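Appendix C reproduces, verbatim, an entry submitted by the partner laboratory led by Prof. M.T., so that reviewers can inspect both the input and the predicted structure.
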Amino acid sequence: MYKLIIIDDEKIIRETIGSMIDWNSLGVELVGLCSNGMEGLDMIIDENPDIVMTDIRMPVFSGLELIKRIRQLNKDIEFIILSGYSEFEYARTAMALNVKYYILKPCSRETITSTVKQAIEDCRKKKDKVVPSYIFRKARKLSQDFVDKARQPEEILNDLFKLLPDSHDYDYAKAVALSFLTNIWYSYGNLIDSTIYYNELENSETKESIQQFLKSHLKFISQKVNKENIPQDSTKGFIKKCVEFTKENYSDPSLTLKYIAEKHLYMNVDYVSRQFYKITGEKFSSFLARVRVENAKEILRKNPDEKIYIVAEMVGCGNNPQYLTQLFKKYEGITPRAFVNLIRSNV
């Protein structure tokens, strides 16, 4: 299933589009309807959709501003622009952002269906180049068998090797191997320096060398675990690392869970997203927003005269002070300026 989000500030439009199409028949899961650019940004960060259908003129972020921001985070999302405005400038800006699909409102069921089908085909071509998600799920299941000592390591490795491609797509094979190893590495916390072994895996150039690396590495882990005899909780381990990384890098406006999962944790983003919510009780976008607001409050406590747009840049909201203001209203119930006035009144 391909995941789709619809963003439009007109309730009747987004709900009508959401209900008028048989999404399942298209192989699409409608994961959410959003009323403005900020809601849309949060949901995109959390859900990692394949397709986003968005209006142009909306509160907080316009559709084009939203696309610009998301393009810095994820270049693979297919955008479909919905607009009641046919000015050429919108289309030209959209094309510069590599947006192929532009629908003028009001639009028919046939037009929407046809456009979504085209976007799906583009998504399919991209996904054909990556490892199918069910392969990752099988690899993680095998890794959990190893952690739980449910079977002998040799049996687990034999099943893992069956998941590796017969072709010369070694990046595919490394991705499967990495999915398998990541859960094991985090199951044993600081017992294993995963960076060293990640680099060793990356330097493997053939399927045989990847298999040999896995054999020797699993043997090494087994010996080390048996010697240390230290049980660990893998889920809490990588979620803790995710939280720590976020607190250290919240000022980066391009920070997303997708980046943390793939570049720092070396894990599947959908899996990390589900586990993050399960363990912390909140979605990653909410956590990131709260971290940014708390740091903005600390900056304003120390320097109440600081310009709000500068504070916004310092905490990762980019050059969009309105975004920071909306986050303040959402999590503090007041604007940044009102927060400063409270500080001054209590001095």
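The chain is about 65% helix and 10% strand. Additional entries are available on request from the coordinating office.
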